[in-house]
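[Solved] Which block belongs to which protein?

Original post:
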Amino acid sequence: MDRRFLGFQSLGYINTITPPFLLAIVFGLSMDYEVFLLSRIRERYAVTGDNKLAVAQGLRASAATISSAVLIMVAVFAVFAGTGVPSIKEIGLGLAVAIALDATLVRLVLVPATMELMGRWNWWLPKPLERVLPRAGFEGSRAVTQGSGAG
């Protein structure tokens, strides 16, 4: 009887559906807080025009919210690891670990560091795309741009 930490005997393999399933779910969940992070950074850049300051302020404004959301998701997925079904345990543990690593290493460390290094290139857009793509604004960005030129 070989019972380990999670309370089941390993079959010695991973279900073939598990890796693409985990990838799809983690991608979808991580895009939510990625958009939140980049929205805060873009808002600050639109106001200040300073990339370094925008990344710092945007990260500061969104880090607590992202961390809280990740802690909730990790706790929920960790509960799945406590079930009696090995395939659900596998998915729960995989999601908990993947979300924690993605949020801490990628979204809160690598993305801001890369944006800091890239400087103004973060906001570069080829001219043909700039003419074709619609202009998307953020809440309050119209008031900032209108108010700044009024004097």
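(Second protein starts here: sequence line, then its structure tokens.)
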Amino acid sequence: MNAMLEMLFAMAVAGSVVAACIVFLRKVPVDLFPAKWRYRLQKIAILFYLLPIAVGISWIWPLIGSNPATVHDSPSVSDGGGLMVAEPPLSVPTIPVSAAFVILGICAIGAIGFAARQLYDYRRFSAALARTRIALPDRSEAAERLSLIKRELGLKGNVALAGSSMIRSPVLVGLRRPVIYLPAALPADVDLDMVLRHEFIHLKRKDLWVKAFALAVGALHWYNPLAHLLRKEIQIWSELSCDEEVVIGMSHSERKRYGITLLNVMAGSGNLPARFSASLSGDGKQFKRRLTLMLNAKKMKKKTMFLTVAALFLIAGVSTTAAVWASDNTPTVAAPVEAAPSGAEPTATSVPTAETAPAPTATAEEEAAAGPSDEPHATAAPAPDPTAAPVPSDEGHAVPTAAPAPAAAESAGASAAVAPSDEAHAVPETAPAPTATEAAAEPEAVPSVK
């Protein structure tokens, strides 16, 4: 869970930095940063939004160092008893497990909902095109021009050509099986060669795949407004950069004819979803900019090329650095604290000592096995209390006292050495002599009279 949060946070930060730079570049003239390179920068933003490049760098970089095993180790300190204990790491923000599940759940629900809506719209659009599809003859003028331009651009994949009464502007549709749809009736002022060349350049640059990945960015980062802004920028600059590439070798008169072609097909572009297709018409709001860039497009100078490449590397470096920072500062999920079992308290292991070890006593089973005895048994007197006053003896008779209890170590060794048995408890061979008091208390034997 921590790795997933880290990747999502790092990708969001890295892609957002590039998207913010794209917004800033709106103020920069196209002469200093051409449309082609702006479109490439948007592809870099997609890459950072979808791939955890910075996370991989943060994981691999410690392995390249001289001592990878100690990169993430915490400093050790002594606990006062000679034992080295790891010092807690620096404070990192943490979130509970429940909050992490809520965040990931909301992200998943939003991504699935966004993707399902886009897939539904695409299926509707494809079904509508399929219902209105018109097959074109293989020997038609459009089919012959299609084969000629395909060989000229060096394309080897299969591209189908069809007509549709649903559209009024040429459009390229299909990721795996691309199809160029032409309107059922093309206007008279439309140059078919320029139309097909425009769509083939889209196909050569894999612009449909770029738009598909832009939709994936929108699904994964549906909560991020910069991700949706990136999708719109890609739809605009894919057309502008395609126009720039189409007219780069044309004369001024040819560029005017291309502009007239764009103007004639602009009327029927309202019903085409730009996120699923590559259309010649594009957005009508950008038509003035398209004409301006198309008429003024020229090969980039070496100085402009150097500045553009340097800016791309700078933006990529800043984005990677920001993503690494985000990876290191991602809030971690706090591990749940396990409750200790009832009645168990973590205490230190107790070692029996001479003061606390109890004296060994005979069990009830051993006393029952020994049976009753007429002779008085010697019982051990309780251990003398050092604080109690000494008891005076009667008539100078010495009262024997019980021997002190053996030490804990000796009693433990004796109990370990003697194994328990089923036999009766052994009685000492020599019973202790009765004391003078006990002898006086015993009754004298009376001779029996026959």
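Accepted answer:
You had them paired correctly. Confirming on the second one: Residues 218 and 227 are 6 Å apart (CA to CA).
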